[in-house]
């Protein structure tokens, strides 16, 4: 394909991607604070909404921001490790119940979460009594709850990627006498950097945006994450929400994700595996 | 060629003894085993004491056995797959499998609002709710005090200033008490008056103390007031019924309610087993079974359409950027990822407002006057478009990642063989991509099949026909379930669980078929 | 290998600190036996309050802290972002709910049937100090279930620059709005939120004025869930009336909670049907306005809005009921708390004394109260929850030109069905 054509196509898609975001930016700058405008260009541009959000006493936005990043980084890192281990087994080993296991992982994800809330209360009421360090309102509790979904979220993704790593690599290593642990840590892991980066990024975004479980778990205004806090801005006592502040919040939420993406981008396109196949 | 030497990490590894044999005991082996035992011991040390203090012996046994099993698993050289699966699976079992199974088990009950707890809880709630202040009873100022170790209410009649002591035995007069201006007791001979903080710390005891009187009982109402009240309803075990106003209310174990002769029931009910009633309701209720096929068909269209459109667009962009001489890829990638970086629920609401007929950006930019979310066809197009916007960056990312795994030589080789770029893509790139992505497409299908937020936050299932308020034109099975079970405000968990079981079975079947088809692809690289 | 060893070390260290931490916290069985020992400074009592909405939570915080100081207890105030009522009921049932819940009075029915709240005992003086409508609203099955602090209802807010005269009938509102629109002075005849899903709360005054009804009434004057009237003969006429308004472009599905107040504040419509929560924005807009009761249709019944009451509830399964009762019945029922909550969110206080003080600086509060004087306290019966969705869907149907008789029947069927369950 001609390079110019590629650029045109990608630019069109970029326009599609940006269109609603420009609208949010416009709402963020609009001092009237409404999402209901039918114009892309606001009546007046001001950073009022930004200032209001950052100085608001009711919304400790800075805290939410830090909480979110902390939770998302820790949770995505741990879940990445858990699901990589599982994906390795599913991709490389043949054992009884393998396909059933994969299938069940998928099906579990399908269960409507709004029904599981009751059971989560049941479990964590008990946990709060016994191990307050992991109880309600604790980030550690939320973390272990998130780990319940770790396998379901990324095992399938990683397994698909691992399937593309030639099996001859581990076979010859096995012949050399390497143990399965050595193969995993020394051979597979370095080969799958792009996969780790993609999956890690996806997990990070997922945890940044998660609010159903977090809203049940984090109730101290200071302990909330961005998603929970922002959702609260919409559903709270103020029936007429200030959408300007909400729009600012939405935009700020995207910043850490973009940052993580910029950091991981070089790994995603590093093409390590491509080189390794030749080796 | 020895494989372990192909990577940098492996090459650097000079410290490793070259070629350890299978049964050899290495330092690494010893260290890991010690570590495993250490972790197991630490877990036990942390988890057990609270359980022992709580005397939950079954839990103690389970924890000990589980820890022992896990430790054993990592100590042996056998069961290799399990070693990799266990860490995630433990969490999965606790926080996903257990909730799902538990919820499914409620499908056999009437669990829901009004029927959340047990019968004893319902009785307690009924009795408390019927407590009424005894007419004409005096207003008491309350001071909590101790006589010896026993909690006593020092009660001051706010009109007569007469002071009495109330215990479980009843009221007795108190002489020589000093009162404050607000009418509380400052000190009384023979009693230790509790400070507010001390009293607050004994909250449970204070709540529990009922001073019997001829008309009922005096109970604390906060820390500074006491009220003489009487229950209008009381449980009578001899007839398994509630006696009192409007009664007798007899326990109806099939409905989980106390019912009187007129067929009325008390508000507070309890959870009972209803057998398969929830399931038969799903099958026999015409509003459910009658619309099931239509909803299901649209649900399939929505899920398939979302997966295919996001995959097609995401892959197209990834391929367009996957060219050695392509410039500006970093910027492009960031822009393309942006939709995915924004909080999804917020952007769904933004899209909904952009589709607004009179106030929306889309009509005002295009000059159309379409009621986008108000007409079935446009509403369906709109939700698919929104879902495309939300989902294609995900597909873009995973395709970009997967493309790195395809050696460029392979596509180049195809080009040299005289294949057109399209043929090269069809014959080489796509099949290889699908190895990595086919499982993902299935899980994406499963996700979109149940994509609750995408519908609930945009159309809410609507538009609706004028003569049918139950099923909307963009309803998925999941939003439809939600409306049936929670739309009326009061939650019917049992019923919702029953519908979920049906949906579950359905998706399981579809996904299993799709999964079977990927079996071949899995072996491409083998 | 290294990673595993590190992980092991980390876990041991973590477990050790966690054990140390948990040793100080008494386990569930010990809390009762050893009060005062765990946190001697605070006296051992702890009061947990759940509230909805960040602004209200922030406004309550200083008072909660003051209460804590006065009583030597720790007070925690938490904000529930998502579906507070269901979260409260679920958490209470499982034993991890709060001691005090803050919320709307129409939750009472559901909270009572789940045994989640307890009646509160207010003294005669306390009752006398409250707006009678507020007291009536929190009374359920003859018991008072919460301490009300604010009252809210819909009213007609008018841009007096555009429409100087107080309309006596709703027909005048429509006529004036249409005239202004024709003259190009406004974009919309009326700003009354409907949205694609309908909005029973905002449509009800018009529905009632046109003769529609939701439930029959019991002998005691309470709504009777056994008689569903939403699809009855008079209601069909009312649906027809809403349909007419839809045809005239007065009611539109495109007017939503997101844009109705903003459009009015922008001067693009002269009339807004909304509540006290709109006032922050309306005042900011800077034009002169007036608040009056929603006028009835010519020859119609009164356009009664629902009256909602915000209240403090004592959780039945809380850990510290005595403190909760103390807080709800003796502490938050004072004028200072009511005024602070009014500052955070301008809903007229339920305490007459607080209202008097607010009135001096802000006449709007009284005007809203006036508009709701004959209002219908929102039925707190759990059955009311069955109304919202079918009503909303029927509303949108008729506004878009659907047959009122069909819509009425569909709504009637849907409500009856969910009540039969």
Report on this structure.
The complex is a heterotrimer of chains A (279), B (526) and C (421). Chain A has 279 residues and is mainly alpha-helical. Chain A folds into 2 domains: 46 residues, no CATH class; 220 residues, MetI-like fold (Orthogonal Bundle). Helices cover 74% and strands 0% of the residues of chain A. In chain A, helix 8 packs antiparallel against helix 9. The two termini of chain A are 30 Å apart. By secondary structure, chain B is α+β, with helices and mostly antiparallel strands. Chain B has 4 domains: 81 residues; 51 residues, no CATH class; 99 residues, Periplasmic binding protein-like II (Beta Barrel), CATH 2.40.430; 241 residues, MetI-like fold. In chain B, strands 1, 2, 3, 4, 5, 8, 9, 10 and 11 form a 9-stranded antiparallel beta sheet that branches. A 4-stranded antiparallel beta sheet of chain B has the order 12-13-14-15, covered by helices on one side. In chain B, helix 2 runs antiparallel to helix 3, helix 9 packs across helix 13 and helix 13 packs across helix 15. The N terminus of chain B is likely disordered. By secondary structure, chain C is an alpha+beta fold. Chain C has 2 domains: 176 residues, Periplasmic binding protein-like II (D-Maltodextrin-Binding Protein, domain 2, 3-Layer(aba) Sandwich), CATH 3.40.190.10; 194 residues, Periplasmic binding protein-like II (D-Maltodextrin-Binding Protein, domain 2, 3-Layer(aba) Sandwich), CATH 3.40.190. Helices cover 46% and strands 15% of the residues of chain C. In chain C, strands 1, 2, 3, 4, 7, 13 and 14 form a 7-stranded mixed beta sheet that branches. A 3-stranded antiparallel beta sheet of chain C has the order 11-8-12. In chain C, helix 3 packs antiparallel against helix 14. Chains A and B meet through helix 1, helix 3, helix 4, helix 5 and helix 6 of A and helix 1, helix 2, helix 4, helix 9 and helix 10 of B.
How large is the count of helical segments of chain A? 14
CA gyration radius of chain C, whole angstroms: 25 Å
Which CATH architecture of the largest domain in chain A is right?
A: Orthogonal Bundle
| Total helical elements of chain C | 18
User: In terms of structural class, how would the helical and strand content of chain C be classed?
Assistant: alpha+beta
In whole angstroms, the N-to-C terminal distance of chain A is 30 Å
Structural class by secondary-structure content of chain A: mainly alpha
Mean pLDDT of chain C: 84
Provide mean pLDDT of chain A, rounded.
Answer: 81
Strand content of chain C: 15-25%
Radius of gyration of chain A: 23 Å
How many separate structural domains of chain C? 2
CATH classification class of the largest domain in chain C: Alpha Beta
Largest sheet of chain A: none
Q: What is the H level of CATH, i.e. the homologous superfamily of the largest domain in chain A?
A: MetI-like
In whole angstroms, the N-to-C terminal distance of chain C is: 60 Å
State the helicity of chain A in percent bands.
Answer: over 70%
Could you tell me the number of beta strands of chain C?
14
In the CATH hierarchy, what is the architecture of the largest domain in chain C at level 2? 3-Layer(aba) Sandwich
């Amino acid at each position: 394909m001609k390079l110019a054509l590629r650029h045109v196509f990608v630019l069109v898609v970029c326009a599609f991607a940006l269109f609603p975001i420009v609208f949010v930016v416009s709402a963020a700058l609009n001092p009237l604070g409404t999402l209901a405008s039918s114009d892309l260009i606001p009546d007046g541009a001001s950073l009022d909404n930004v200032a209001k959000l950052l100085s608001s006493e009711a919304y400790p936005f800075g805290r939410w921001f830090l909480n979110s990043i902390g939770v998302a980084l820790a949770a995505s890192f741990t879940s990445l490790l858990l699901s990589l281990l599982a994906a390795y087994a599913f991709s490389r080993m043949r054992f009884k119940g393998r396909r059933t296991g994969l299938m069940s992982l998928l099906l579990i994800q399908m269960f409507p979460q709004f029904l599981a809330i009751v059971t989560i209360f049941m479990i964590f009421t008990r946990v709060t009594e016994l191990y307050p360090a992991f109880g309600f309102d604790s980030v550690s509790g939320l973390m272990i709850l998130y780990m319940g979904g770790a396998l379901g979220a990324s095992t399938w993704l990683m397994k698909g990627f691992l399937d593309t790593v030639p099996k001859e690599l581990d076979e010859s290593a096995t012949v050399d006498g390497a143990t399965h642990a050595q193969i995993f840590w020394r051979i597979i892991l370095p080969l799958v950097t792009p996969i780790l980066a993609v999956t890690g990024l996806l997990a990070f975004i997922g945890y940044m945006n998660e609010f159903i479980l977090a809203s049940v778990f984090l109730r101290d205004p200071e302990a909330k994450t961005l998603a929970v806090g922002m959702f609260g801005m919409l559903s709270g006592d103020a029936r007429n929400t200030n959408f300007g502040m909400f729009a600012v919040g939405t935009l700020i939420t995207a910043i850490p994700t973009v940052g993580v993406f910029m950091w991981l981008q070089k790994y995603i396109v590093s093409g390590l595996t491509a080189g390794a196949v030749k080796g | 060629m020895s494989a372990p030497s192909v990577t940098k990490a492996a090459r650097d590894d000079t410290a490793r003894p070259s070629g350890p044999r299978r049964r050899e005991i290495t330092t690494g082996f010893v260290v890991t085993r010690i570590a495993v035992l250490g972790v197991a011991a630490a877990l036990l040390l942390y988890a057990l004491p609270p359980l022992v203090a709580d005397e939950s012996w079954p839990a103690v046994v389970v924890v000990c056995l589980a820890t022992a099993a896990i430790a054993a698993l990592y100590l042996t050289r056998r069961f290799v797959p399990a070693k990799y699966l266990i860490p995630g699976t433990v969490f999965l079992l606790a926080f996903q499998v257990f909730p799902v199974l538990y919820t499914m088990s409620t499908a056999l009950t009437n669990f829901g609002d009004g029927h959340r707890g047990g019968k004893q809880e319902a009785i307690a709630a009924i009795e408390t709710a019927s407590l009424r202040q005894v007419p004409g009873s005096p207003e008491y100022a309350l001071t909590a005090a101790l006589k010896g170790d026993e909690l006593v209410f020092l009660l001051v009649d706010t009109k007569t200033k007469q002071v009495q002591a109330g215990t479980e035995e009843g009221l007795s007069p108190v002489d020589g008490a000093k009162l404050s201006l607000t009418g509380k007791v400052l000190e009384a001979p023979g009693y230790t008056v509790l400070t507010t903080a001390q009293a607050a710390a004994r909250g449970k005891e204070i709540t529990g103390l009922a001073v019997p009187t001829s008309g009922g009982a005096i109970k604390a109402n906060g820390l500074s007031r006491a009220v003489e009240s009487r229950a209008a309803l009381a449980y009578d075990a001899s007839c398994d019924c509630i006696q009192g106003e409007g009664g007798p209310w007899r326990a109806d174990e099939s409905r989980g309610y106390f019912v009187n002769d007129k067929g009325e029931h008390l508000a507070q009910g309890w959870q009972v087993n209803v057998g398969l009633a929830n399931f038969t309701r799903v099958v026999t209720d015409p509003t459910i079974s009658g619309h099931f096929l239509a909803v299901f068909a649209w649900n399939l269209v929505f899920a398939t359409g979302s997966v295919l459109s996001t995959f097609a667009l995401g892959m197209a962009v990834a391929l367009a950027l996957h060219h050695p001489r392509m410039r500006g890829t970093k910027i492009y990638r960031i822009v393309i990822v942006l939709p995915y970086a924004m909080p999804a629920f917020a952007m769904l609401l933004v899209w909904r407002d952009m589709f607004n007929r009179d106030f929306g950006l889309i009509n005002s930019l295009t000059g159309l006057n379409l009621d986008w979310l108000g007409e079935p066809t446009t509403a369906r197009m709109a939700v698919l478009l929104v879902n495309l916007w939300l989902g294609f960056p995900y597909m873009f990312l995973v395709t970009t990642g997967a493309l790195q795994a395809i050696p460029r030589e392979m596509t180049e080789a195809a080009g040299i063989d005289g294949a057109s770029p399209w043929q090269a893509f069809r014959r080489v790139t796509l099949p290889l991509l699908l190895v990595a992505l086919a499982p993902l497409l299935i899980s994406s299908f499963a996700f979109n099949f149940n994509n609750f937020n995408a519908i609930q936050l945009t159309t809410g299932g609507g538009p609706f026909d004028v003569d049918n308020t139950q099923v909307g034109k963009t309803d998925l099975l999941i939003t439809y379930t939600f409306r049936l079970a929670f739309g009326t405000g009061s939650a019917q968990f049992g019923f919702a669980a029953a519908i979920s079981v049906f949906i579950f079975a359905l998706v399981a079947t579809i996904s299993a078929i799709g999964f079977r088809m990927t079996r071949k692809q899995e072996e491409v690289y083998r | 290998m290294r990673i595993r060893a590190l992980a092991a070390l980390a876990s041991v260290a973590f477990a050790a600190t966690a054990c140390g931490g948990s040793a100080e916290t008494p386990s569930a069985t010990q809390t009762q036996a050893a009060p005062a020992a765990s946190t001697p400074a605070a006296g051992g009592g702890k009061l947990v309050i759940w509230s909805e909405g960040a602004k209200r939570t922030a406004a309550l915080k200083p008072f909660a802290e003051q209460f804590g100081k006065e009583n030597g207890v720790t007070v925690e105030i938490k904000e529930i972002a998502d579906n507070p009522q269901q979260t409260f009921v679920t958490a209470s049932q499982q034993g991890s709910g709060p001691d005090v819940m803050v919320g709307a009075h129409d939750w009472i029915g559901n909270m009572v049937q789940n045994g989640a709240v307890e009646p509160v005992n207010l003294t005669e003086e306390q009752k006398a100090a409250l707006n009678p409508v507020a007291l009536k609203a929190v009374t359920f099955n003859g018991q008072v279930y919460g301490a009300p602090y604010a009252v809210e209802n819909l009213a007609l807010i008018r841009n007096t620059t555009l429409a100087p005269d107080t309309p006596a009938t709703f027909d005048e509102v429509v006529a004036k709005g249409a005239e202004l629109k024709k003259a190009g002075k406004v974009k919309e005849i009326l700003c009354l939120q409907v949205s694609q899903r309908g909005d029973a709360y905002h449509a009800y005054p018009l529905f009632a004025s046109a003769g529609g009804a939701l439930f029959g009434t019991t002998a005691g004057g309470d709504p009777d869930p056994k008689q569903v009237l939403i699809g009855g003969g008079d209601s069909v006429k009312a649906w027809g009336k809403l349909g007419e308004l839809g045809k005239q472009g007065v009611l539109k599905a495109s007017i939503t909670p997101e844009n109705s107040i903003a459009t009015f504040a922008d001067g693009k419509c002269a009339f807004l049907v909304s509540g006290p929560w709109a006032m922050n924005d309306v005042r900011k807009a800077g034009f002169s306005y007036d608040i009056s009761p929603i006028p009835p249709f010519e020859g119609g019944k009164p356009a009664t809005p629902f009256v909602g009451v915000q209240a403090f509830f004592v959780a039945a399964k809380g850990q510290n009921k005595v403190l909760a009762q103390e807080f709800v019945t003796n502490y938050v029922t004072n004028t200072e708390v009511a005024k602070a909550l009014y500052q955070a969110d301008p809903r007229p206080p339920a305490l007459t004394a607080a209202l008097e003080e607010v009135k001096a600086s802000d006449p709007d509060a009284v005007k809203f109260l006036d508009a709701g004087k004959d209002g219908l306290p929102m039925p707190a019966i759990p059955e009311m929850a069955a109304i919202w969705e079918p009503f909303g869907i029927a509303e949108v149907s008729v506004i878009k030109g659907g047959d009122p008789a069909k819509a009425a029947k569909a709504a009637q069927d849907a409500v009856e069905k969910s009540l039969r369950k």
